[in-house]
């Protein structure tokens, strides 16, 4: 491809010299493009780069007002896109890329950023702004390098740069404008045009990198790679690269989601951008000289590295491919600038030569493959769940924690199970990222827990989810096996699943036998321990001195509240059947700020408190019962008292999160609600919603105050 690029006048001789060695430096590395733009894909593929496409889920919602210059916005967006993918892959795809490429292209004219037109009139508005004028196309690019360390931590370091190209449109007559708009091409393109297709006819001149207008500044990218890999690694070994990239140095542990302006230039502390390696010798992107430069070839900046713990096991060749690409069809870059859906899209070279880019056929087959993978992932989901439930119930993770390195036959012997079955189960666990297989004794691999298993699947881990997993296996699984008839009759499936009628799920199903009760309490306990801290610290609760955790079960949530708020005492209020067993769950060291009162929250008087906690209570009940409970709480409250509600909040269109909607499939009387629905229920009892917080944890939270 290089000769044709040279013919386009994109690359000078010197740059071309460095291209092949640079691209070949990436051979054998996992390079990921965090963009679904077919144009970018095409440009990079033509350059001979081998990479995977994992479109970023980063929503392009950065506040443009925070940035001094448009290119800073593009660079920051590119960086956030790349970082999102770099951070997601070790968890979702169970593999850590070596490099993630993020890019964002914007069109600016008269100090305005033009996004994608929403309709034909909007396209007309944009194109008439561009008519007869010169405008700028900026592409911000971030190259995030990931370095996986021994302890399963991943270091991230971002190198950023941008390219500006000036484009002048001819004077466009009304008829020409409308003809172009009616071609449909302007939609889905920032600035409302695609230079590589019909939009090329509107262009009088292009000053700068043409491919930058298409969507990716290839030349600048190659120079940047050269700086990173050739200059940094003149001794050409990986170790010097590590040093060069600052991987042995201190790192910034957090990644801002709403970064301050110029974040991309706050890199001077990073060893990678130090003068020693001369990575930031050019004008800074936000420096006056840089912002005034046309066709900018500014040097990149290297942002501080970020350190993130990865939870999943290391990817292995054997891992099922269906896990590797997640939800691609749902989440694609939505504001790529010069994308075209055309099946062939001619690129004009300066010599008038036409290069046919048959991209979309290839794209199509890739997208179809991803669609297929997504469907297979959904079809196989139950197998993965059951493999997790079974290995957890049989004690695989506890065993391998005390005796890491056992092979399948040894595990089978300890678990009193068949060798063949155990072998299959262990291999499946490796594929799911729950176990790692290491070394070999003769023919048999030796197994040990991954970080994920150690953290959540051991019975004595502080954040153990074993209790909840057991509940899913023994209670939720049988309910889901009757889903079809549940949907058909809209009835409670408990009788079919457990052979007993039930009016009140707690009293009639869970608390009928001691074994089922303890299982349920264990399940609640494990989830409360994982979510409790995020809920307890979601809001400033310093004005409350006493709280009552309504339906507080084992007290796990109450203990998290007292830990987070040293002046708060919490009374746990739950059914007598629960309170009598609660002492089994008390932590070893407490300071008596958690107490238990037995009662029925629909019938009995509630303990007095300044704050009532309702964690995972209201979703179990229909509106009438919710009103009954809220009216009792309202009666117990004086003005200024609070209700802290914690549930999964559905989004307002009830399209997610899927966790909430899937849970609703096995619920009988209750229902999942949005934050607004909860807020309205509380409002009808005199509570004003003060704050809503979507925690990054399993439960969201809302604080309401009695007016
Ligand atoms: C889904 S669990 C939530 C437990 C706890 N709040 C948490 O987040 O971990 C519902 C709790 O409400 C309690 N509960 C159900 N009906 C009750 C009633 N009528 N009176 C008191 N507690 C009740 C159950 O015993 C159970 O502990």
UniProtKB/TrEMBL annotation:
Residues 377-457 form the O-methyltransferase dimerisation domain. Residues 264-274 have a biased composition (Low complexity). Transmembrane segments: none annotated. InterPro entries: COMT-like, COMT_C, COMT_dimerisation, ITPase-like_fam, Maf-like, SAM-dependent_MTases_sf, WH-like_DNA-bd_sf. It comes from the Eukaryota. Residues 245-255, 275-302, 318-329, 340-352 have a biased composition (Polar residues). Residues 480-687 form the O-methyltransferase C-terminal domain. Gene3D superfamilies: 3.90.950.10, Vaccinia Virus protein VP39 (3.40.50.150), Winged helix-like DNA-binding domain superfamily/Winged helix DNA-binding domain (1.10.10.10). Keywords: Hydrolase, Methyltransferase, S-adenosyl-L-methionine, Signal, Transferase. GO terms for biological process: methylation. Its cofactor is a divalent metal cation. GO terms for molecular function: nucleoside triphosphate diphosphatase activity; O-methyltransferase activity; protein dimerization activity. Residues 243-352 are annotated as: Disordered. Pfam families: Dimerisation, Maf, Methyltransf_2. Homodimer. This is Acetylserotonin O-methyltransferase-like. It comes from Sparus aurata. The gene is ASMTL.
């Amino acid at each position: 491809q290089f000769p044709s690029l040279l013919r386009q006048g994109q690359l000078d001789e010197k740059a071309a010299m460095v291209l092949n060695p640079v691209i070949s430096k990436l051979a054998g590395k996992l390079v990921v493009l965090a963009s679904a733009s077919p144009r970018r894909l095409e440009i990079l593929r033509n350059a001979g780069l081998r990479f995977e496409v994992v479109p970023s889920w980063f929503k392009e919602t950065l506040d443009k007002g925070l940035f001094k210059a448009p290119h800073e916005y593009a660079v920051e967006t590119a960086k956030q896109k790349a970082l999102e993918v770099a951070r997601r892959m070790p968890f979702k795809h169970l593999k850590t890329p070596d490099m993630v490429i993020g890019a964002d292209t914007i069109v600016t004219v008269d100090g305005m950023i033009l996004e994608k037109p929403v309709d034909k009139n909007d396209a007309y508005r944009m194109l008439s702004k561009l008519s007869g004028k010169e405008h700028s196309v900026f592409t911000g690019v971030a190259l995030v390098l990931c370095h996986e360390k021994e302890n399963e931590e991943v270091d991230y370091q971002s190198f950023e740069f941008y390219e500006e190209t000036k484009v002048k449109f001819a004077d466009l007559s009304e008829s020409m404008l409308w003809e172009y708009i009616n071609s449909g091409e302007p939609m889905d393109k920032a600035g409302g045009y695609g230079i590589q297709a019909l939009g090329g006819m509107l262009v009088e001149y292009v000053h700068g990198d043409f491919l930058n207008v298409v969507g990716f500044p290839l030349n600048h990218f190659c120079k940047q790679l050269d700086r990173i890999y050739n200059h940094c690694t003149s001794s050409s070994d990986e170790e010097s690269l590590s040093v060069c990239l600052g991987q042995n140095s201190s790192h910034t542990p957090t990644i801002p989601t709403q970064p301050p302006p110029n974040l991309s230039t706050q890199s001077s502390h990073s060893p990678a951008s130090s003068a020693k390696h001369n990575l930031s010798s050019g004008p800074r992107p936000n420096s006056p000289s840089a912002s005034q430069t046309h066709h900018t070839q500014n040097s990149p900046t290297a942002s501080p590295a970020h350190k993130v713990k990865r939870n999943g096991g290391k990817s292995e060749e054997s891992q099922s491919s269906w896990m590797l690409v997640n939800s691609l069809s749902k989440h694609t870059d939505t504001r790529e600038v010069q994308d075209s859906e055309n099946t062939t899209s001619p690129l004009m070279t300066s010599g008038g030569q036409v290069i046919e880019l048959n991209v979309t056929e290839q794209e199509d087959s890739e997208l179809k493959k991803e669609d297929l993978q997504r469907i297979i992932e959904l079809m196989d989901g139950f197998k993965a769940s059951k493999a997790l439930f079974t290995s957890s119930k049989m004690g695989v993770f506890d065993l391998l924690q005390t005796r890491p390195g056992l092979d399948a036959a040894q595990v089978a012997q300890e678990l009193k199970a068949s060798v063949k079955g155990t072998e299959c189960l262990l291999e499946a666990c490796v594929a799911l990222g729950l176990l790692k297989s290491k070394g070999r004794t003769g023919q048999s691999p030796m197994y040990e827990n991954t970080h994920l298993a150690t953290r959540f699947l051991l019975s004595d881990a502080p954040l153990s989810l074993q209790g909840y997993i057991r509940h899913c296996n023994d209670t939720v699984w049988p309910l889901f096996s009757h889903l079809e008839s549940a949907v058909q009759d809209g009835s409670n499936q408990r009788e079919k699943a457990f052979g007993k009628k039930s009016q009140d799920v707690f009293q009639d199903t869970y608390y009928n036998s001691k074994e089922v009760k303890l299982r349920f309490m264990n399940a609640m306990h494990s989830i409360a321990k994982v979510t409790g801290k995020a809920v307890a610290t979601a809001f400033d609760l310093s004005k409350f001195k006493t709280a009552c955790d309504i339906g507080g079960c084992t007290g796990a949530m109450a203990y998290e509240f007292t830990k987070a708020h040293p002046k708060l005492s919490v009374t746990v209020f739950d059914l007598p059947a629960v309170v009598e067993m609660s002492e089994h769950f008390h932590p070893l060291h407490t300071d008596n700020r958690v107490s238990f009162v037995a009662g029925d929250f629909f019938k009995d008087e509630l303990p007095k408190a300044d704050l009532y906690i309702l964690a995972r209570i209201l979703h179990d009940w229909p509106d009438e019962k919710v009103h009954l409970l809220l009216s009792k709480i309202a009666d117990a409250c004086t003005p200024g008292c609070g209700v802290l509600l914690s549930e999964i909040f559905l989004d307002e269109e009830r399209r997610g999160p899927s966790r909430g909607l899937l849970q609703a499939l096995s619920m009988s009387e209750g229902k999942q609600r949005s934050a607004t629905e909860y807020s309205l229920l509380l409002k009808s009892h005199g509570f004003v919603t003060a704050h809503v917080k979507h925690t990054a944890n399993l439960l969201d939270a809302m604080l309401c105050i009695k007016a």
